[in-house]
Amino acid sequence: KVDEGSDPKDEVISEPEANPRLDAPRLSSHPNPSPGQSEVHFTLPRSEQVTLQVYDLKGERVATLYDASASANAETKVDWQADDLPNGLYFIRLTTDSGKSVTTRVMLQR
């Protein structure tokens, strides 16, 4: 709304605030529960170096699936063969060089 007597060209138009969800990496794993073989998919809002690691319930890293640069807005697919791990719950964590991190859970069930 413009006040009477004010000049519309003097209005300040604010930019919409950045949506943190749009600026965050996206991560998923299929199938879940997994029979020991999964596809992990991730997409980044900007090109950068990323690390994709798997942790057990004790917080111990059990696998590094990806450690390289990835392109912005392009889905990257990584195959995870978990044949050497026991059944149970695992966490897949994607970490970027810019400090962003996202985690998903995967149940191994054979």
Strands, helices and their partners?
Layout (H helix, E strand, L loop, with lengths): L25 E5 L6 E7 L4 E8 L5 E10 L5 E6 L6 E9 L4 E8 L2
Antiparallel strand pairs: 1-2, 2-5, 3-4, 3-6, 6-7
How would you portray this structure in words?
This protein has 110 residues and is mainly beta. It is 0% helix and 48% strand. It has no helices and seven strands. The protein has strands at residues 26-30, 37-43, 48-55, 61-70, 76-81, 88-96, 101-108. It has a four-stranded antiparallel β-sheet, with no helix packed on it. A three-stranded antiparallel β-sheet has the order 1-2-5, with no helix packed on it. A hairpin with a 5-residue loop joins strand 3 and strand 4 (61-70). It is globular and about 35 Å long. Mean pLDDT is 87; it is low at 12-16.
Q: Which descriptors would you attach to this protein?
A:
110 residues, mainly beta, four-stranded antiparallel β-sheet, 7 strands, 0% helix
